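sanity check this record:
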Amino acid sequence: MSTLGYLERLPELALEFADEANRIAHRDRGVVGAQFVSCLTAEAGLDVADCLVITEATALAALAPARADRLLRSLERRGAAGLALAVRGDPAGGIPPVVRGAALRLSLPLMATRARAEVWTCVDRDLSRTWQRQATRYMERIAQFVGHLPDGFHRPDVREHLVTGLSKSMGAYVLFVDSTAGGVRAEYPLDAPDVHRYTAHDIALSRDTSRSPQFRSGLHVVRVAVGQAVGQADGGSFLVMVSAAPFEAETLALADHTGKLLALAQDVAHVRRLSDSARGVRLGVFQMLMGGQTVLAQRAMEGLSPGLLQAEQIRVYVISTPPGAREDLVDALEPVADGRALLVRCPARGDHVVAVEPLRRAGRATDGPSWAGLRHVLTDAIAARPGCAMGGSRPHGLAEVSDAYSEAAHALVSAHHTVGRVGMFDGSSQLAPLLGEAAHRWAEHVVAPLLGLPYAVRDELIGTMRIALEFPYTQTARILGAHRNTVASRAARVAEVLGREGRPLDLKDVRVRAVLHLALSLLRTWNPRNEAAPDLPSLPSILRSAPARTWAEGMLHPLRDASPSLSPTVRAWVRCNLHIDDTAESVGVGAATVRKRLRRTEALLQRDLCTGLAGAHALTLALAVTTGEPRLPELRPAPTVHA
């Protein structure tokens, strides 16, 4: 933008300020046009914003002080860049004193000129063209700057994007320094001359609080404070621009805007760190609950959401999302789940979200709208998001979160095939709840060596083994927040304790895993009685019972009406210890065909056969009950039965 000082230097205009004080105060005043008005009045409806108004000095010589004040005040209200009086003799002596006084009172730029009216017509045209060129160039720089802005401030490289955009749009070396974070955070271009770098660092670390452009070492330098009060010199963040050419006033606004955006990015990063910390605490609490560390989980959660886990019972929901959609779902659910559920990203599955909902008794002080309807909120969220599904558990004690999680994960498999994509576990598809008291006594006998261990060791081993029987060791480690080697070590300890004749259990054998899974499932539903236990049954006698046969036939029934190739493939898969390649060789098809048939079987049986292990254990038991194959091992020697 041109200035009054620039017009003063044009000899054809013979333009001068009314006095030196006026010149010093207003020479940098921007001007985009010039209008010669032969008859200037306060009532004239002129558009003179940022324009220099020129009129004859003789026309204003006879004005009364009040009228002169009103005339100049109207120019000031309309945003005029200044008033120039056309004089015929000495410019300084040709300005009426009444106009000079009014301009001084209103701090309005006042000038005198000897140029004719037609000259000002050409000046106005040239000023308009110059302004248009400058405005176009300024908008191009803004467009270039905006083009370098990141899509969101959640990106870790947001500072680099902002600094790069500013540097390219201004054609300058840009340095962002944060002394509180150890120095340089971003700079561009990286191959800038050393003199630019040294100059930028010197002014960034100086105690000078000036915000105006400076001239250092033959370079033009500007420093902008980022996220701190004006005048604060010590510490904080600064944005420094260094250029061989002077900075234009219009483009300096980009530096101010960039400083504000950088401050916003720092605030967003701080909030993100706090949010990530809270999410880390919630994940740690969930892992404690999965490992049975209830008291520690309650204590850890008190600082984040007081009273949330002070409940006798809970319900667990597991929600699956399409690839890449989990974060959007979490962002939508976190506000509604805050204070009413423990919401975490599943550590085992990158497409799952887990919610642990405390169940409150009626009449509690915490009862009310904030504690009600979480299931409905989650159901509505699922309905609004195609590809999502949710499974929910039955009510469980707070110490049984791992059991509830397993139930919710199982219900999720069925939910994918329902209309509403929501399924709640009712226990009807599980074998353990259908078996009688004799089966519970058998389970206690099987795991008796574990129950004889010290309390802390026993609970740790049993808790880990229950999860490790349903998920691979890597996923189990993520669920518990432990290392995979730790999970493997605990599993090896269980195999050693439950082994027979000095040999540990072969936990790689799906038959052994299926029997142990059934025993642990029965153990957690058993309530001991204070009476002498009768003789213990064997595993075959338990599986020959009517409830077991009814369950097995009902589970495998969907395969009867399916493709004839499914049943042989499934039996071969179990016989080959769940090895895909061995199954393909046994059946005489490719591995891809086996996987395709297993996915079809999953849909028919509504069991997870590939990603989890519980479905494979149930299938192994069902085949053993209905066909006698595979033959299941007795994990403990059968007790002596007295006549």
